[in-house]
Amino acid sequence: MLEARAAVKSLHAYRPPLAGRKGLRLDFNESTIGCSPRVLARLRLLDAETLARYPEREPVEHKVATFLGLDPAQVLLTNGVDEAIHLLCATYLDPGDEAIIVVPTFAMYALFAQAEGARMVQVPAGENFSFPLEEVLSRISPRTRLIAVANPNNPTGTAVACDLLLQVAQAAPHAAVLVDEAYFEFHGETILDHISRQANLFVARTFSKAYGLAGLRIGILAGVAEQIEMVRRVASPYNVNAAALAVLPEALGDQAYVQHYVAEVQRGRAMLEQELGTLGLRYWPSRANFVLVRIGRAHAEFIQALRARGILVRDRNTDPGCEGCVRLTVGSQEHTRTLIAALREVVAQLKVHHEVKA
């Protein structure tokens, strides 16, 4: 009888709660205004011949490399950051190897590493979800083959200084060190400039967040050319679809649109954090397009009360260290004002039941 590998059978499937997402979607950190009009205009020009051909990734990789100030050999376009993580695990992990992550963090690091038969080494974040550098360094062993860090981190919004990440990479030259910069645009700091000098360092980026292209599934994996060539060997030559490749140059070309949205989010993030403080709610200052807030025992009721007002937010109660927490995506200022008005109503409602305080 056919059976899946033991590593696969032991996995806990990641099933995001995508069904029934009607209303203001502040649950998956997507753009709340969508992509550039130039992207939509380019999509409308796609013809039957383009869709009938296999997509050609390399010409667009050259354009992306130029945008990033890298050599094309240092850049691989991927089907979102998820595929970048998957490819790194497939390239560098053997059964019995170890992968280090700091928790709480993005679930796909553990899922893809465990699918390769690797053992997860989970290091709890420090106070206020700070990066536990010394603990991470102490857990590096000869079996460590992957270290993944989201910067800024999801779901906490906290960021790690580049010098700390470089210390990790330098301490584990035998391991692939992935710095996932999915939320880079909202943070503004990057380790990308160091990849040419640190052979085991990889940087991932996405066009799902600031660029509003989550539905097209396109991301970037960057590293030294010799290592990207290894990763390219396990990637499908047709992993990025023709529509995504057609519109990506237009998305990159409309930086004014991206910068306007990023500025909206940054202003909205400050507004939201100020309001959470005024409401007496515990939150963590964020460098991303979301804020993690501790609601306490009433977290499920809080989520449902917002849903009843047409606003979707994400329950993070089961993440390590996030008991009673909810993640709120920050979008345009208009959408943030809508969220704040609803928060005031919901907090007033739940305070009657003494459930808001953790």
Give me the secondary-structure topology.
Blueprint: H1 6-9, E1 24-25, H2 37-44, H3 48-52, H4 58-68, E2 75-78, H5 80-92, E3 98-103, H6 108-115, E4 119-124, H7 133-139, E5 144-150, H8 162-171, E6 176-180, H9 184-187, E7 201-206, E8 219-222, H10 225-234, H11 242-253, H12 255-278, E9 282-284, E10 290-294, H13 299-308, E11 311-312, E12 314-315, E13 325-329, H14 333-351
Parallel strand pairs: 1-11, 3-4, 3-5, 5-6, 6-7
Antiparallel strand pairs: 2-8, 7-8, 9-10, 10-13, 12-13
Helix pairs in contact: 2-11, 4-11, 5-6, 5-10, 12-14, 13-14
Put the structure in a nutshell.
The protein has helices at residues 6-9, 37-44, 48-52, 58-68, 80-92, 108-115, 133-139, 162-171, 184-187, 225-234, 242-253, 255-278, 299-308, 333-351, and strands at 24-25, 75-78, 98-103, 119-124, 144-150, 176-180, 201-206, 219-222, 282-284, 290-294, 311-312, 314-315, 325-329. The chain is α/β, with parallel strands linked by helices.
Tell me the structural class. alpha/beta
Tally of helical runs: 14
The SSE order reads: HEHHHEHEHEHEHEHEEHHHEEHEEEH
Gross geometry: globular
The CATH fourth-level homologous superfamily of the largest domain: Type I PLP-dependent aspartate aminotransferase-like (Major domain)
- The helix fraction, in percent, is 40-55%
CATH architecture annotation name of the largest domain? 3-Layer(aba) Sandwich
Order of strands across the main sheet:
2-8-7-6-5-3-4
Tally the structural domains.
Answer: 2
